[in-house]
């Protein structure tokens, strides 16, 4: 079983980006709570992120990333800080340099299993060298993982005549339509690159590894969970929403970076608001908005006449001038809107009874956190696999309204204030809220004893115990 005591010991090795690190931390907590020894492997600067485990014992092992040798800027050990396409590809490719140090750690600690990020396809062979199973963690939904396989297999995007002509995802439940404009730039690349090869290997590793751990719950996407397992034939366990393992305010407040607002101050502000009266606006850990887009968003917010908490990744500059904010905006919004500059305690906010809606970029963690909190969403996808997640929210689950973003992009621009105002008003009066609330209850039941995710986590632990006698 790897560890001396006969206890199951799992090594978790996430990609160095908040969208991967945060759910890994939750996953490790979930396993640890079931008596499994959990160790997270990460780069030096990410260690503080894992320091607040509140009584749950999780080990951290440091792995050093030779960024400069990999052609990246000194100190670059985090994908959130690279913004260009070229750099993020370079970063992910460079993580292959971690193979040797990972092998050293496996040699030394002899864990029973390795849960490694989808972006580390080489980890399957590394685990095999040590005779242990490798599980894949992709950090997204059954829906989006399956749709990407469909696109890779059938290439429907190559059979349309323009970037805006919709196509249906083939051999996939639910007549889901997309356009070429909504696909990631790397999916559209015609020539084979090192990065496209890596992605192919990553998708292949879902089939060739021991199986896939999915942060989702069965009742959320049964047709797609079945499709993934039965049609694609991938062995998978759903164990989410993993964020629900954070029960008290402190756990909910301290996920990812240090929050830029004191949790008590935030709760105090929310406590002055009526039940279901505040909209929370946040676009994940890597938003990149043009100043004019931020300005339009502020105008849309004001026009919607809603109370809000808006998370902006910009700090005030020395002159305290903010060209992206309409003149006098904060004074006019006093008491009505709260701007958090930096990092927000997202789960704490979403779970507050005053919050009634979520404007989101449809990152999978945010999506699932919104689902778990039972709030309807305004969807504003930008990059990664967010346009797939938007389809799940708006077309399948019908718990969200789209702001109308049509273009996959690394710098967000072009959404007009009227579209923002319309979606924010509509979300409050539509049927989405009731459906979202019901789904939130299902999410909670899924992780409770006897629930679908609770049982699947048990099944996974059992399978690993049998595999590693
Ligand atoms: N998050 C947070 N505060 C912020 C921004 C993000 O706590 O101000 C957390 C959020 O709760 C989620 C993660 O960061 O767990 C973002 O992951 P997601 O998959 O939604 O988006 P990504 O950052 O990968 O685009």
TrEMBL record:
PROSITE patterns: UDPGT
Listed PANTHER family: GLYCOSYLTRANSFERASE, SCOPOLETIN GLUCOSYLTRANSFERASE-LIKE
Any Pfam family: UDPGT
InterPro entries for the chain: UDP_glucos_trans, UDP_glycos_trans_CS
Documented EC number(s): 2.4.1.-
The name this protein goes by in its record: Glycosyltransferase
The organism's place on the tree of life at top rank: Eukaryota
Family from the record: Belongs to the UDP-glycosyltransferase family.
Keyword Glycosyltransferase carried by entry: yes
Lineage: Eukaryota, Viridiplantae, Streptophyta, Embryophyta, Tracheophyta
Entry-linked CDD domains: GT1_Gtf-like
GO molecular function, one term: UDP-glucosyltransferase activity
Transmembrane segments: none
Broad class of enzyme this protein falls into: transferase
Keywords: Glycosyltransferase, Transferase
């Amino acid at each position: 079983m790897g560890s001396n005591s006969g206890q199951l010991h799992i090594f978790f090795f996430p990609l160095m980006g908040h969208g991967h690190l945060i759910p890994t931390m939750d996953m490790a907590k979930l396993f640890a709570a079931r008596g499994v020894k959990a160790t997270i492997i990460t780069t030096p600067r990410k260690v503080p992120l894992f320091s607040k485990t509140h009584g749950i014992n999780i080990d951290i092992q440091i792995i050093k990333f030779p960024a400069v040798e990999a052609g990246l800027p000194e100190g670059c050990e985090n994908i959130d800080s690279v913004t260009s396409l070229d750099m993020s590809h370079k970063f992910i490719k460079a993580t292959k340099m971690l193979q040797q140090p990972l092998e050293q750690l496996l040699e030394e600690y002899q864990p029973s299993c390795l849960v490694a990020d989808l972006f580390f396809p080489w980890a399957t062979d590394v685990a095999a060298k040590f005779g242990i199973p490798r599980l894949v963690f992709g950090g997204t939904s059954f829906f989006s993982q399956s749709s990407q396989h469909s696109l890779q297999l059938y290439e429907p995007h190559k059979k349309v005549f323009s970037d805006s002509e919709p196509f249906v995802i083939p051999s996939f439940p639910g007549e889901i339509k997309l356009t070429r404009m909504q696909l990631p730039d790397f999916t559209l690349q015609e020539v084979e690159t090192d990065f496209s090869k890596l992605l192919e290997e990553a998708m292949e590793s879902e089939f060739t590894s021991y199986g896939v751990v999915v942060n989702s719950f069965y009742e959320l996407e049964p047709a797609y969970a079945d499709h993934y397992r039965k049609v694609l034939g991938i062995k998978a366990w759903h164990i989410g929403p993993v964020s629900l393992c954070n029960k008290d305010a402190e756990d909910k407040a301290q996920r990812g970076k240090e929050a830029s607002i004191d949790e008590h101050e935030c709760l105090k502000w929310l406590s002055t608001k009526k039940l279901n009266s505040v909209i929370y606006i946040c676009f994940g850990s890597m938003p990149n908005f043009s100043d004019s887009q931020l300005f339009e968003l502020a105008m849309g917010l004001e026009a919607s006449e809603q109370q809000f908490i808006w998370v902006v990744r910009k700090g005030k500059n020395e002159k305290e001038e903010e060209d992206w904010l309409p003149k006098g905006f904060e004074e006019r919004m006093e008491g009505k809107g709260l701007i958090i500059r930096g990092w927000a305690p997202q789960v704490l906010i979403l779970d507050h009874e005053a919050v009634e809606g979520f404007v989101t970029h449809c990152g999978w963690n945010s999506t699932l956190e919104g689902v778990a909190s039972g709030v309807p969403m305004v969807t504003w996808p930008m990059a990664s696999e967010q346009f797939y997640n938007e389809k799940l929210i708006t077309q399948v689950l019908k718990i969200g309204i789209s702001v109308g973003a049509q273009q996959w992009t690394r710098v967000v621009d072009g959404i007009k204030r009227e579209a923002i105002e319309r979606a924010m008003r509509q979300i409050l009066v539509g049927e989405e809220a009731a459906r979202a609330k019901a789904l939130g209850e299902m999410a909670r039941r899924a992780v409770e004893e006897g629930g679908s995710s609770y049982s699947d986590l048990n099944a996974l632990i059992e399978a690993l115990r049998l595999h590693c006698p």
